[in-house]
Amino acid sequence: MIFRSVPGSLSRVLGALFLCAALVGAAGCGGGSAPAAPAPARSGATAPAWAKGMATVRADALPQQAREVLALIDKGGPYAYRQDGTVFGNFEKVLPKQKRGYYHEYTVRTPGERDRGARRIVTGEGGEFYYTDDHYETFKAVLR
Predict the structure, then answer these.
(1) What is the pTM of this model?
(2) Catalytic residue among 105, 113, 125, 128
(3) N or C: the chain end with fewer CB closer than 10 Å?
(4) CA angle at residue 137 from 116 to 126, to 5 degrees?
(5) Are strands 56-58 and 129-132 parallel, antiparallel or unpaired?
(6) 105 part of the active site
(7) Which sequence ranges are marked TM in the entry (predicted)?
(8) What is the pLDDT of residues 9-60, one digit of tens each?
(9) Quick check: is 128 catalytic?
(10) Predicted local confidence at residue 65, as pLDDT
């Protein structure tokens, strides 16, 4: 045995570790299929149907300013910018196609910016919440 000078309990632990490593290695070998891509971390939150296939972010992981806007949306305002609550046209076609008026946008203040900045929350009539920090180029579905 290769663990002759190792105390008994440590020898058993090391043996178990080697066995686990061998089993994991064997499970990952053969079959010819590529390993599955890791699932995005959701910390217990399950993505709703409208968010399938999208990048997601938990609401509590958003910047503080975005969490404040979510709270204002829940309360119905008041909002900091006159454009808040207006129709979002989805002209970039990044979000799922819907009839005009389905989506509405809200400004997420960016510290240090003199104008509205690039960050927004976009809501859908079906209860969807999306976050963008690059002025509509990409969106993440907000898990609440």
Answers:
(1) 0.68
(2) 105
(3) N
(4) 85
(5) unpaired
(6) yes
(7) none
(8) 444 544 544 444 443 344 443 444 333 333 344 444 578 999 999 999 999 9
(9) no
(10) 97
